[in-house]
Model the fold of this input.
Amino acid sequence: MFASFCRRRLLLYICKIPGDGTNRLLSIPGAFHLAHSYSSTDVSSVPNSELYPATVSYLISCGLSPAAAAATATTQKTRILSNDKADAVCALLRYYGFTDADIVRTVRSAPSILVVDSERILRPKLDFFASLGFEPRKIATAPFLLARSLHNHLVPSIQFLRGMIGSDDDLRLGFSRVPRALMADVEKNMRPAVEALRRCGLTEAAISKLLVIKMSVLMTSPDRITKIFEELKAIGMCISDSRFLYCFRAMCSVKRGTWRRKLELFQSFGLSEGEVLKAFKIQPTIVLFADDNIKTKVRFLLDKLKLGISDIVAQPVILGYSLEKCILPRCAVLSLLMREGKIQRDIKLLQALLGNSKIFSARYVLRYANDVPDVVKAYEGKIKFEGFI
Done:
């Protein structure tokens, strides 16, 4: 009901737009004063050598640790002069569904939110986000959005994105993955990025899908976009390949030097560059994992499970599984079932480990829970994996 009310309230704010996302913002009563700079009586520059006890105390009351509150007050240079105004802001955030954890995250990154006029400046923006169905916990990861102009930034950005993506459900999904992408300016960032994608050969449908997959591509420079296309083409990726957009997403997230280092890391396990690139095309996210994460998982799979490196790169999705939360509990289950004679010791181990939790649980936990009760404990991590004996 509340979301419906907010949508009705926002009907005057945005009009439905055609595919190019270029329609002008409709007249918004009172919107012209929503995101101006804050009054100098509410915020003042705080020298690094001075900490205002009242500001630090209030941040602590919001849930920040004393150290975090002191650091925030210093680095963000925010001075809270009115507890009433700050209290009103926190109350309004809670009214719109922000949890205490969301508020902590918000004020840690953007403490200046605490000194704005909650009704005149903050509520219209929260109404706007609520009308779109954006979750408070996602907004809290990019709280500076609440400091951007509703009239000059947020509404034009959503208009543009609606024109490119089409579906509000997909718009919500794209935003939820990378909320900070909405910080990008339409004319300086979004439009040039989209034009670069078009010049490189992506269709409108492919661009729409890419924005849902990784909306932060809109924060990538046209030159960088062009270079990524060239690099993907050089390793044999074709735009028409269904995996291309996912490879593009991964390449957007790593620098050139990082890319080379990841290739060398995988090659250090005895793989050729061609084998590594083949694995990347199957599971592009393998280049996004931390080096230590990759080393730990590969060494476990090689040394403890006695798998071959060729087997691992043939199913690189296994590298995306958490060792502690997924692989080890599943190994504990399989090891227990082998000792109890419920499954064969020559089972295809890697295939058994793959699949979502629902499939694995049905196949190996629920199926044997009555005969081998400890299998549930093993899956919950209460019985540790000690190897396949």
About this structure: The chain is about 55% helix and 0% strand. The longest helix spans residues 323-339. The mean pLDDT is 85.
